[in-house]
Structures are given as C-alpha cells and as structure tokens.
C-alpha cells in the first residue's frame, strides 16, 4: 500500500490493512478462514425468493452466519464510517422515511421514480472501486469485494449491501442535485426511490428527460411503471407517507386499517393471536418514527378499548397515562 493510501485511511479513521496478516490480526479471524470466505464466498449463501407487491419474485441471498459476521465487521469498521450524499436518506442511522419526506413538504408537485433491481445492478467492479477510493490496496479491496458480493453483484440479504449501494449512488445523487438544485427543485433518494418536488408543476415535469439521462449514464435503470407525478389533484406520497400542506404521515386510509387491526385484538377469537399482536406493535413502532400525531391517537384508542376489554389481547399494548 502506498503512503498516500495509508494517509487517506488515517484521515478517514479507517483501519489500516495492507496484508492478509494485518487483516487476520485486526479481525481475529484466521488467514485460512479469510481466504475461504473471499475465494469461495458464493458457497456461503442460501438463495430463496419472496414475492414482491407486484407478484414477481424478489431473490434473497442469505449469507451464512460466518460470512454475515465478517460482512458485519466490514460494515461497522469501514463502511459505516463513510458519509453518503446529503440527498441520501435511506438505510442510514437516525434516518427514516420521514426524513426523506420532510424536504418535499409544501410542494405543489412531486415526481417519484423507482430504480429497477437496485442491488443486482451494482457490480463487483463498482464495489472494488469504492474500497480502492477509500485507500485500500488491490489485495484488500479484492477481499472486501469478494466478501460483500455474490456472483459479481450486490446481494439482497447482506448487511453491507445497503451502504455499498448508497456509496455507489453517490455520484448519481451529486449529479442530480447539481442539476435540479439550481432549478429550485428538491431531491431526495431513499434506497431505490427517487423523489423530486417544486412549486412550479411545469418545472418539475420538465426535468424528467435529463434525470433519465443521468440515471442511465450512471448504469442504473428506471422502472417506468412506477413513475408518478402528483399535483394538487392527486395525493402526494413519498416513500409511503402522505404529504399535505401542513402535515406528513401515513394518511387516513392506512390509519383506519391500523385502528381496525387494534380493534380486532378485543375479539375473543383473537385471544392468543401473537401474529396480529406483533403486527399491531410493528405499526405502533412505525408510527413512532414517522407519524407521532396518529401514534397519540392510536394509544388513546387502545386505552379506551382496554377499559372495556381488560382481558383481551389489548392488555399487552396498554400504555396508561
């Protein structure tokens, strides 16, 4: 490793690793294990699929416990120490879909785009370039890359993939922000969801051809079936949150659905329904991060139901004042 590489790693606060011996010493993993996980990483995955909302399969590449542990070390000690672009709001600590929606509050028009096969379209070469840019030599960058990729692409299932995807999209974010910023348009990206908003509907619509060119030139693909433009006549939705002039939240329709699930927990037939209880608890946790007004309403509703159904499943959600 050149002196420049070492200086760069020190400046970024990253572990200085030049050889396999260094790597083994700092991770407390044997050189043989590191070699196996690097050279034969594809054999350490379980592959299965789950259906997307569209019904099409989403391929999940689940790393083994040993490989996932090594990936987690790379995430914590290397990748998490690197900042992403200011436009990136997804998969980052202390960031939520609410942070992604806030910049678009008060806009007259919102344009949303979706990137197709976000993780699989990011290649091992792009991942290698990230580690090289940080200051690591070819050997260590290659080991990092092999451990973090599956069949030469980013696997959905690895703890490193979201951060690596965000770092790969850094130039994409920078170019888009540079183009739309001077036109008075807000831009955020939450993983593969890109959102644009502005006060002038014509200006927002006008950026689409250039944004498409930038995305394609950065080797990403637009899922045109998910392109949406919402003005005053349509609900403005960004990463699942409904944006009005003075509020951001899950929207009335979703909240009614949550209330219905809460009410179901009062039914005798639902006694012992842990699955429904966990689902409701998950919704309450989500509300806590993105819609505290409706969380307060939900908790008030739960307390009211508990007074009438003290021995129902509601008792496990109760939060008395």
TrEMBL record:
UniProt keyword annotation of Protease present: no
Start and end residues of each Reverse transcriptase domain: 31-243
Alphabetic keyword roster: Antiviral defense, Magnesium, Metal-binding, Nucleotidyltransferase, RNA-directed DNA polymerase, Transferase
Pfam families: RVT_1
Catalysis performed (reactions): DNA(n) + a 2'-deoxyribonucleoside 5'-triphosphate = DNA(n+1) + diphosphate
Protein name: RNA-directed DNA polymerase
Natural source organism: Flavobacterium flabelliforme
Gene Ontology MF terms: RNA-directed DNA polymerase activity
Family that this chain belongs to: Belongs to the bacterial reverse transcriptase family.
Species lineage: Bacteria, Pseudomonadati, Bacteroidota, Flavobacteriia, Flavobacteriales
EC number of the protein: 2.7.7.49
Transferase keyword on record: yes
Domain of life: Bacteria
């Amino acid at each position: 490793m050149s002196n420049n590489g070492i200086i760069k790693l020190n400046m970024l606060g990253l572990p200085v690793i030049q050889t396999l011996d260094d790597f083994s010493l700092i991770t407390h993993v044997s050189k043989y294990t590191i070699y196996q996980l690097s050279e034969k990483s594809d054999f350490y995955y379980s592959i299965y699929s789950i259906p997307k909302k569209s019904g099409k399969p989403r391929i999940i590449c689940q790393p083994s416990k040993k490989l996932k542990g090594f990936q987690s070390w790379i995430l914590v000690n290397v990748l998490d120490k690197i900042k992403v672009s200011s436009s990136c709001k997804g998969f980052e600590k202390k960031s939520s879909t609410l942070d992604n929606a806030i910049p678009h509050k008060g806009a007259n028009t919102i344009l949303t785009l979706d990137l197709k096969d976000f993780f699989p379209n990011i290649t091992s070469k792009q991942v290698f370039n990230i580690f090289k840019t940080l200051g690591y030599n070819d050997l260590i960058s290659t080991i990092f890359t092999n451990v973090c990729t599956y069949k030469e692409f980013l696997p959905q299932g690895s703890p490193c993939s979201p951060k690596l995807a965000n770092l790969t999209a850094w130039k994409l974010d920078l170019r888009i922000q540079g183009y739309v910023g001077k036109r008075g348009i807000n831009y955020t990206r939450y993983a593969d969801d890109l959102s644009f908003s502005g006060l002038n509907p014509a200006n927002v619509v006008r950026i689409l051809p250039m944004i498409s060119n930038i995305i394609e030139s950065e080797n990403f693909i637009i899922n045109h079936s998910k392109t949406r433009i919402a003005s005053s006549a349509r609900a403005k939705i960004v990463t699942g949150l409904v944006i009005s002039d003075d509020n951001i939240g899950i929207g009335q329709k979703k909240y009614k659905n949550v209330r219905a699930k809460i009410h179901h927990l009062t039914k005798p037939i639902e006694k012992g329904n842990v699955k429904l209880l966990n689902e409701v608890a998950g919704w309450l946790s989500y509300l806590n991060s993105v819609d505290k007004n409706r969380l307060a309403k939900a908790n008030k509703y739960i307390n009211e139901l508990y007074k009438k159904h003290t021995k129902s499943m509601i008792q496990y959600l109760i939060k008395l004042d």
